[in-house]
Amino acid sequence: MSQTVSLATEPRTGTGSRAAQKLRKQGLLPAVIYGHKEETVAVTVNAKELHRAIVTLHARVLDLSVGGKTETVLIRELQWDHLGSEMMHVDFARISKDEKVKVTVPVKLKNAPKSMGGGVLDQPFHQLHIECLATAIPDDITIDITNLTLGQPIHVKELTLPEGVKVLESQEVVVVQLKLPGAEAAAPTPIDGTATGPEVIKPEKKKGDEEDEEKKK
Amino acid sequence: MSLMPKRVKFRKNQRGVARGNQAQKKYNGAIKGNAHRGNYVAYGDYGLQALEGGWLSAESIESGRVTVTRFVSGEGRYYIRVFPHKSVTSIPAETRMGKGKGEPEYWAAVVRTGQILFEVGGLPEQAARDCLARVAYKMPFKCRFVARRPNI
After folding, report:
1. Interface residue A181 vs chain B (CB under 8 A)
2. pLDDT tens digits, residue range A149-171?
3. Domain that holds residue A83
4. A153 and A204 share a domain?
5. Option in B36, B105, B122 nearest A121 (CB)
6. Do residues B135 and B118 lie in contact, with contact meaning Cβ atoms separated by under 8 Å?
7. What angle do CA B39, B42, B44 make, to 5 degrees?
8. Based on the number of CB atoms within 10 Å of its own CB, is A185 exposed (0-12), middle (13-18) or buried (19 or more)?
9. A169 and A125 in one domain?
10. Is A183's Cβ below 8 Å from some Cβ in B?
11. Element (H or E) spanning A166, and its range?
12. How far is B99 from B91, CA to CA, in rounded Å?
C-alpha cells in the first residue's frame, strides 16, 4: 500500500510561465491545491522531495502543510517536460481519508509463463482504473502469470484484488494474454522504389463547376 | 518494403521549419520545437526516445523495424511510434535551376526532440536495452532508452 508522505508548501504569488520557470531554477515546483468546494491555492513544493515521494516511495496521498494547517491531498495530475525527465507542475486534490477515490494503478506481472507455446506476451492494459479508499490505494495490481497459456487470457474478473478495491474497467476486458506473433500488426505494404507513389485524392467536381466548364468551351 | 501513406491529398509537401545555421545546413537542421505528443512510452514496457529532431526516412524506420523484429521475434512485441507522412523532393544532378519543384525522392517522419520512435514489450529490461541499443545505432539522431513514467 502506498505511504502517506508529509511535505511542506509555500504560497505562490507569481503566475505564468516566466514565474514558474524562475521557481524551477530554484529547485521548487509550482503546484495547485483544489477541491472540496474550498478556495484554489497556488503553492510551491520542493521538487526533490516530491520526486522522492512519487518515484521512490510511490506515494499517492500526501499531507501538505499549507499556511500553518495540514491538508490531506491526492496527487491528481503530474506534468512532465518533453523528455519526461523533470516534473513541471503538479495538481493536488483535497480529500478526506475516509473518502473513496478513483485512481489508476499499474499492473505488475509476476513470474514467467511455464510454456509460451509459440506465443508472445501481450499486455493490453498496463494500468487499471480503480475505486478504493484514499488510505488504501495499492501500489500495483500483481498478476501471477505462471499458469498463463495460449488462448486463455486473464480477464479483469479473474484478478485477485486487495480488499475494498473495485476495478472500473469492464469485467470482460483482457489484461494479459499470450498471443500468436502472426496476429500482430500487419507488415508494411510492399512498395518498390518511389515509382509507384501513394494514390492522390482528387477533389470531386460539383455540378455547377461542370456547367461552367461547358460554357467556357 | 518501406512505409509510405496509402492515399495523400498532395504528392509534394512544403519543407517545414528547421533551426540551426540556416546558411550552411539549410533545411537539414534539427526540427524546431519539442515533442509534446508521442513523448512517453504508451504501449510497451520500454522505448527509444529521440534526443534530437530531424527527418527520419522510411528506410531508417524499416532498418530499425528489421533490427527489432530479429531481436524480439518469438519473445515479445514491438511497436513503431512514427510514420513517414512527409514526402521529400529532390532535383536531379546536373539540372539547371528553375523549372519547378523536384519529384518526390523518399518519405520521412518529422521527429521532434522527445519523440518515442520504437517500443518493446514482454522482454526483460536488459534484453530491451540490448535490442534498442542496436536500433539506436541505426537512427540518424542521438537516442536514449526510456521506461514507463511513474503512474499517477
Report:
1. yes
2. 888 999 999 999 999 999 999 99
3. 5-97+197-216
4. no
5. B122
6. yes
7. 120
8. exposed
9. yes
10. no
11. strand A166-167
12. 10
The reply to whether A16 touches chain B by the CB within 8 Å rule is no
Which grid coordinates are listed for A194? 518511389
Cell matching residue A113: 509463463
A130 and A69 housed in the same domain? no
**Looking at domain B29-89+103-147, what is its CATH homologous superfamily?**
Ribosomal protein L16/L10 (3.90.1170.10)
Q: Which chain B residues contact residue A83 at CB under 8 A?
A: 34, 39, 49, 51, 113-114
Tell me whether residues B40 and A201 touch, CB distance under 8 A: no
Tell whether A196 lies on the interface with B, counting CB pairs under 8 A: no
Our CA-based measurement puts residue B113 at a distance from the nearest CA of chain A, in whole angstroms, of 8
Whether residue A109 is found in the same domain as residue A71: no
Q: Are residues A90 and A108 in the same domain?
A: no
> In chain B, what residues touch A119 (CB-CB under 8 Å)?
none
Task: Specify the number of domains making up chain A.
Answer: 2
Tens-binned pLDDT, residue by residue, of chain B (152 aa): 689 999 999 999 998 876 655 455 555 567 778 999 999 999 999 999 999 888 999 999 999 999 999 998 878 889 999 999 999 999 999 999 999 999 999 999 999 999 999 999 988 999 999 999 999 999 998 999 999 998 88
Residues A120 and A86 in one domain: no
CATH number of residue A172's parent domain: 2.170.120.20
Q: What contacts A123, CB < 8 A, 6 or more positions away? A: A107, A109, A175, A176, B121, B122
**Domain spans, chain B:** 29-89+103-147
Cβ-based neighbour number of residue A108 at 10 Å: 11
A19 and A79, same structural domain?
yes
The reply to whether A169 and A143 lie within a common domain is yes
